[in-house]
Specification:
The chain contains four helices and five strands. It is of the alpha+beta class and 142 residues long. It has a single domain, classed as BH3703-like domains (Murine Class I Major Histocompatibility Complex, H2-DB, Chain A, domain 1, 2-Layer Sandwich), CATH 3.30.500.20. Strands 3-2-1-4-5 form a five-stranded antiparallel beta sheet. Strand 4 and strand 5 form a beta hairpin. The radius of gyration is 16 Å and the shape is globular.
């Protein structure tokens, strides 16, 4: 496991590249592009993707246990004291090998199965934020 807060700026790239490799291994022949969304709290996560094939068809795929664990590690490593860590990320991959990532630090995670409120409380305990950095949606849950 990556120690909490141990990844500085740019140090997350090898972990993201490993996640991208794991996603590509899940994709079918003839894929053109893929998007994988990962939303997480301490002890809870969902990861789902959509792949588009050469013929234009698309299909949903789920992340493996290994991929979900790796992205949890990434989230843990990207924690910043007083600022917290991100709630979700999107990885977009093209069959050219190019990929991009976007991180959600402020908006409520988009879970298909909503975790209990205690999970949000535990997440804030594990990844504390200064009071002014706690999003309004989270403040309302607490």
């Amino acid at each position: 496991m990556i120690p909490r807060g141990s990844l500085g700026i740019g140090e997350e790239h090898p972990v993201v590249e490993d996640a991208v490799r794991q996603i590509v291994e899940l994709l079918p022949e003839g894929w053109v592009e893929a998007k994988f969304r990962f939303d997480a709290l301490w002890g809870y996560a969902e990861g789902v993707g959509r792949v588009v094939k050469e013929n234009g068809d698309s299909e949903i795929f789920r992340g493996t246990v290994s991929l979900i664990a790796r992205l949890h590690d990434l989230r843990n490593g990207m924690y910043e004291d007083g600022k917290g860590t991100w709630y979700g990320m999107m990885i977009e991959i093209g069959n050219s090998g190019h990929y991009s990532t976007k991180y959600n630090y402020n908006f409520k995670p988009k879970f298909n199965h909503e975790p209990v409120v205690a999970t949000y409380v535990e997440d804030l305990q594990q990844y504390p934020r200064e009071d002014v950095l706690i999003p309004d949606w989270l403040r309302q849950l607490l």
